[in-house]
Amino acid sequence: MAHKFNPKHLDKLDNPERRDKLPPVETLEKLGFEAKDILVDIGAGIGYFTIASQEITKGLVPTYALDTSSDMLINLKAREIEITGKNHIQTILTDEYDFKLSKGVATFVLLVNVLHEIDDKTIFIRHIQQILKEHGKVAIIDWKKIEMPEGPPLKHRISVEETKKMLIELGFRIEKSLEFGTELYGLVATK
């Protein structure tokens, strides 16, 4: 069974160290997220990236925050209102393999430290394909498959090579490969 993030550790989702390693707006821009993009943030947690996306889109396009934890989504809505003064982001309580969204709704799907938590990654990515518009992008940030004190156990991590291979086999085209410090890799692929 895949390693899941413990919601008791919410403080790890937004702190000065994370903001230094993964500044949210700058990270989205590096991944190629643009003002016209309809974001689906899967495993949105407290909205670290979802809320930051509003600085780029100015709230002019739909934005979806998905999570399997209602506590995370409640926290996200409170943070959105506190930070932006708006209630724009649509939160959706999902199952792991059911995003509860229409086909072709997204132009940009974001997964940050989520893929390693999924048991059947192929089924999961196929569901992402369904919600992406043609030529839509999926951006994945996850832990490098190396031993380090932070993050999930090594046996639960998926390497950048494994992730690329899976995406290509499922019909995606790799657009960009990135590194975020010594701990995280990033990939952007187009449907």
UniProtKB/TrEMBL annotation:
The UniProt record lists the keyword Methyltransferase: yes
InterPro entries: SAM-dependent_MTases_sf (IPR029063)
Gene Ontology BP terms: methylation
Bias (Basic and acidic residues): 8-21
Keywords: Methyltransferase, Transferase
Chain intervals for the UniProt region annotation (Disordered): 1-21
UniProt-recorded Gene Ontology molecular function terms: methyltransferase activity
Name of protein: Methyltransferase domain-containing protein
